[in-house]
Amino acid sequence: MIIREKGRIRDGVTMIGNSGYPGWLFTCGIPTLFESGVTVIGPSYFQDLQRELGDPNLLQYNFITHAHFDHAGSLPYLKRKIPGLKIAASRLAAETLKKENAIALIRKLNSYYEENYGHLANGEDVVFQPIEIDRTVEDGDVIDMEGFTIRVIATPGHTRDSVTYYVPEVKGLISGETIGVYDRKFRNRPQFLSSYKDYIGSLEKLAALDLDLIMMGHDYALTGPDAAEYMGKAIKATHAFRDRIEAGLFDSGGSQEAVVRKIFAEDFVGSDAIQQDEQSFLINLGAMVKAIAEGK
């Protein structure tokens, strides 16, 4: 099954916020939230936490998969609203969130949503502020949450700092864009921004897991056969996109700019399938073309 609407996914697991920038709330043990999307979604998370927990202060942890603006944007807001909340991320993500240029970029990319979807903030101050990570996680960590377990898996490729969380009790995966994203026609769109080679290696690592639930970085949760069969499809789609970029580089004499223009025109312009703003689509596409051109 492919689930897009927020709400209960299964006992103890709920999608909160909205499907575009979902937070995955686990209440089957220590109350824990995975991911923290764009800044303007912060108040929606808080309202949903209040509904699901009764008291939002019961939320103990917020784990993020990586330090991109649309996965860490609401962290400062939630930390202000829930002072006892502990933020968890990889060591590399923690280092990224200390860098002035990274903070400036997070603010810049979130500003699009603050300007165009500011009503979601309900008049509250949601602007991204520097944030300290309370707990760093490493590949191989196994964290007991008194009702469920979090296995931490380093999965670079989308970004260098990406980690995936596997919860064996529900055969569930929280992965960010490590496994790509689905467009509105349920086609897998790879997201190997930092390294194609690392990305494929991460997909192959995750393909070995027993999966019955995938909580994607954007838009969807997958259950049953849709989850079990997803990794094979993601690997196939990633190989195909690499081939497409390589063909474009060959035809254009190695011009990365020409390949970006061509794929942008074919996939984004006039299409209603892409679930991403133009600026983010172009940034990500440019990074993927560069990764292939440079043999990363």
Topology, element by element:
Elements: E1 2-3, E2 7-10, E3 13-18, E4 21-26, E5 32-34, H1 42-53, E6 61-63, H2 69-72, H3 75-81, E7 86-90, H4 91-96, H5 100-116, E8 135-137, E9 142-144, E10 149-154, E11 163-167, E12 172-174, E13 181-182, E14 188-189, H6 196-207, E15 213-215, E16 221-223, H7 225-228, H8 230-251, H9 256-267, H10 278-293
Parallel strand pairs: 5-6, 6-7, 7-8, 12-15
Antiparallel strand pairs: 1-16, 2-3, 3-4, 4-5, 9-10, 10-11, 11-12, 13-14, 15-16
Helix pairs in contact: 1-3, 6-8, 9-10
Architecture overview:
With 296 residues, the chain is an alpha+beta fold. The chain contains ten helices and 16 strands. The chain has helices spanning 42-53, 69-72, 75-81, 91-96, 100-116, 196-207, 225-228, 230-251, 256-267, 278-293, and strands at residues 2-3, 7-10, 13-18, 21-26, 32-34, 61-63, 86-90, 135-137, 142-144, 149-154, 163-167, 172-174, 181-182, 188-189, 213-215, 221-223. The strands form three sheets. Strands 1-16-15-12-11-10-9 form a seven-stranded mixed beta sheet. Strands 2-3-4-5-6-7-8 form a seven-stranded mixed beta sheet. It has a two-stranded antiparallel ribbon with strand order 13-14. Strand 11 (163-167) and strand 12 (172-174) form a beta hairpin. Helix 1 crosses helix 3.
